[in-house]
Amino acid sequence: MGIDSGLRAARNERWNLTADAFDQLLNALDPNRERAAVAYEQLHHRIIGLLRWWGASAAEQLADATLDRVARKLNDGTRIPAGSLGAYVRGVARLVFYESSRERLSPLTGREAAPVAAGDSDRAGECLDRCLATWDPGDRDLLLRYYGAGKAADVRKQMADQLGISMTALRIRTHRLRVRVESCVAGCLE
Amino acid sequence: MNAADLRTYLLGQSTEAQAERVEIRALDDEEFYVTLQSFEDDLFDEYARGTMPDVDRKPFLARYSGERHRLVVARALTARVESPSGTSKYWMLAAAAVVLTAVGATVAIRTKSASPTPAASVAASAPATPPASAPAALLLTLGTSRSAAAVPEVRLPSSSSSLRLRVRLDPADTFDSYAMELRSGQGDLVWRADALKATVEGGDRLVIGDIPARTLTATSYELSVTGSSAANRPEVLGFAAMSIR
C-alpha cells in the first residue's frame, strides 16, 4: 500500500474527518507529504502507547479520536505554536481519554487481561524458538545477547562499543527486535 | 530526564508534572518514545528474571498484569537466554519468608534466617518415618526476597500422596478466586489449579492447593499465584520457588 493510499484508508476509516482537516493535520506534521505520512503514523503509534500507559482499553480507537479532534481544531483555525504540537496532542488525548472513561463506550479490545490458557505458557518457549529460528542470525544473537547473562549495563556497553553505535541506538534496535519477537510469539500462540 | 525518571514514570510513580513532561516529550520525539519503550522491555525482563525490587513489583503488576502475552514472552526469552548448563535460575523469582512443615513434624525454616542451607535444616529436623500416605505441606509467602539461598528444598517422602501448598496472601490481595501454576525449572507446566478460594487461618489469608505427589520429581519448581474477580483484571500476585528432594 502506497503512502497516499494508506493515508486515504486511515482517513476513510473515520467518517467524520474531512479531507481538508486531514490535510491540515498532515501539513502541521510536515510540509513534505511523504515525511508527513511517516510522522502521522509515528504520532498515531505514540498516542496509542500513551493511552495504554493511562490504562485505556481501546487505545487505537481513542488515538484515532484524538487525531480527528486535533485535525478538526486545526481546520477550525486553532493555531498551535511551533514546538508545541506534542503538548497540544497530549492535552486532547487526555480529554478524549477522560471522556471515554466517563462514558464507558469502548468495547473490549482484546488487550484487557484474559486468563492465559495453561497451554499458552508451555508453548511460548517453543514458539520463541520457532520465531527466532527464522531470523537472521545477527538479529537473533543481538536480541539474546542483549537480554543474556551478565550485568546488563556492562553487556550492553560492550555490545554498543562492538557495534560502534550509541547505547540509545542499541536500545532502539533491540526494542524493535523485541516487538518483532513478541508479535511473532503472540501470533504463534493464537 | 534520566533512566530513573523513565522507570518511575513507567511504574506510574511520577508526579503529574513529571508525567506530563515525559509524555509531551514522548509525543514530540520518536527516538525518546522508543527509548521509553525499551525501558518498559527492561521492566518485563526484570520481572521475568525475578530481579525486580519488591517495591516495584506492585506498581509493575498494576500497570502491566493485563499484558499477558508480553509477560509470557519475557519469561520465555529469559528461559532461552539462561545458561544451558541446567542451572536455570529464571524460576527463582520470589520466595520470602518460607516456612516448611512436614506433617507430623515441627519443621520451620525462615528463608531470611542466617542459615544458607535450608535443606540441611529440614533434613535434620524431619521425622525419620512420616505417616503412611500423609501429605507433605509447604507454607509459602509471596513477594519478598528472591535470593537463590531463599529457595526451600522440600523432602517429599515416598509415602506422601500429595504436597499441600499453603500460600500466604498479602491482605490487600483480595480476589474472588485464585489460580496456582507450578512450573519446572525449564518452564514446563506441571500442575495447575483454578477457582481456588482463600481461607483464613490464624489471621493469615491463605490459598491452598494439593499437588499429587506423582507429578513431582526431584527438581526445582516455580509457583505462580493469580487472583481473579469479576470487577478486576486477573492479576499475577507473585511467585515462589521451591525444590523437591
Model description:
The complex is a heterodimer of chains A (190) and B (245). Chain A is mainly alpha-helical and 190 residues long. Chain A has nine helices and no strands. The two termini of chain A are 26 Å apart. A five-stranded mixed beta sheet of chain B has the order 1-2-4-8-7, with no helix packed on it. Chain B has a five-stranded mixed beta sheet with strand order 3-10-9-5-6.
Features:
heterodimer; A: 190 residues; mainly alpha; B: 245 residues; alpha+beta; 5-stranded mixed beta sheet; 29% strand; elongated
Unreliable stretches of chain A: 105-118
**Spatial ordering of strands, largest sheet of chain B:** 1-2-4-8-7
The most extensive contact between chains is: A-B, 50 and 50 residues
Order of helices and strands of chain B: HHHHHEHEEEEEEEEE
Structural class of chain A: mainly alpha
What's a concise summary of this model?
The complex is a heterodimer of chains A (190) and B (245). Chain A contains 9 helices and no strands.
Architecture blueprint of SSEs:
The complex is a heterodimer of chains A (about 190) and B (about 240).
Chain A: H1 3-12, H2 19-29, H3 33-53, H4 59-75, H5 85-103, H6 118-133, H7 137-146, H8 152-163, H9 167-189
Helix pairs in contact in A: 2-3, 2-4, 3-4, 4-5, 6-9
Chain B: H1 3-10, H2 16-28, H3 30-49, H4 54-64, H5 68-81, E1 98-101, H6 118-125, E2 136-141, E3 153-154, E4 162-168, E5 177-184, E6 189-196, E7 198-201, E8 204-212, E9 220-229, E10 232-244
Helix pairs in contact in B: 1-3, 2-3, 3-5
